[in-house]
Amino acid sequence: MRYISTRGQAPALNFEDVLLAGLATDGGLYVPENLPRFTQEEIASWAGLPYHELAFRVMRPFVSGSIPDADFKKILEETYGVFSHNAIAPLRQLNGNEWVMELFHGPTLAFKDFALQLLGRLLDYVLQKRGERVVIVGATSGDTGSAAIEGCKHCENVDIFILHPHNRVSEVQRRQMTTIFGDNIHNIAIEGNFDDCQEMVKASFADQGFLKGTRLVAVNSINWARIMAQIVYYFHAALQLGGPARSVSFSVPTGNFGDIFAGYLARNMGLPINQLIVATNRNDILHRFMSGNQYVKETLHATLSPSMDIMVSSNFERLLFDLHGRNGAAIAGLMDSFRQGGGFSVEPERWTEARKLFDSLAVDDEQTCETIAEVFAQSGELLDPHTAIGVRAARECRRSLDIPMVTLGTAHPVKFPEAVKKAGVGKALELPAHLSDLFERDERCTVLPNDLKAVQAFVSQHGNRGKPL
Ligand SMILES: *Cc1c(COP(=O)(O)O)cnc(C)c1O
User: Best of 259, 280, 319 to mutate for ligand 1, by most ligand atoms within 8 A of CB?
Assistant: First the structure.
């Protein structure tokens, strides 16, 4: 499989190189040159497979030429072996034909484990083969950091540095990062906000001199491998609900458009998906596009669903690429005008094309809490605020009651106790067994000033299993 950039000017890469790449050299994002397409018979024949075997069949074409089948199977079996629920991504019924797919049974209790548990193992496999080491420098406002650290903690060939804003992540989220020890794991609390952290990561990709030749790898959802891993659970859900003979709809709590883009790809690979709902919080750039063809940057608001607090959705460029007939020059132009003027619209027929599949809703904090309370009263299911936004959007935007509607349950409610408390649900939140002593564990973290040079100096001092690069 070859991968090409959404801006058309960077060299095509194979899977291995795309795994190790950040942005393409032309500033674009990598996508498969040709998406595999499965027949209905083929998809139907996968019914009842264990999750890792389904994952093998769905992802095999993407890694072909880079990872032999037997090795890939073994990696997938290990990856999904660490999940605490036997079904890996169980479906919970809320109402007649309404479901939540629980994607929070991985080590860090958010859906990001599906991709980052795999990414860590893939990196180690590829790096072992090449005899190389890499450094990861990533920024997090919460869930990505812990999932990335958990995914890479056993990697022999990866040193991981995660930047989080000092005193601005929740205690559960901080402890999920800072209580994991290893000489290749480095938590850095930056005396600044999340944007400061992200800017430092971007600047480090742009100028990698401080790495003394060691390669820098991205763990945010611009990394293709993360999107790839998320395609699988759309197939998994559909197969349990009568697919592919029957179509299914999904509502997806969205920030960076990563998770929902995976659903879009599942559909293009042959899975009958009737409707994809973009569910955002008050940071609603995607909803403003889907509802009114305006992709315009606005100020950032802090919400009860912090993992979706974004101003700009990086993966949206991947959808725009398809909407523009995969014309890289057109995307480069749009992105330029976005950078200069802070916004754009697309031609009406392209927007109409997107709207055939996508609907959207923006849900504010008050409605989020209302939905948590409503669903708890109706069905006893306690939703986290991100998932609640998805359920709310599913209910308001649903096109057909005959088609099963699945909301992606992106996090365990215990990660976001504030929202649950505000919703007035009087149920005690308990950490799952593997995290029950989280608040008693020792923490390890370095506080650094909001200064790029200080961060880069720290990375070069510790980037080789705690020793200087
Ligand atoms: C990251 C995250 C999201 C948003 O996912 P995207 O792929 O950026 O759309 C939603 N919910 C939770 C709990 C998350 O951690």
Answer: 259
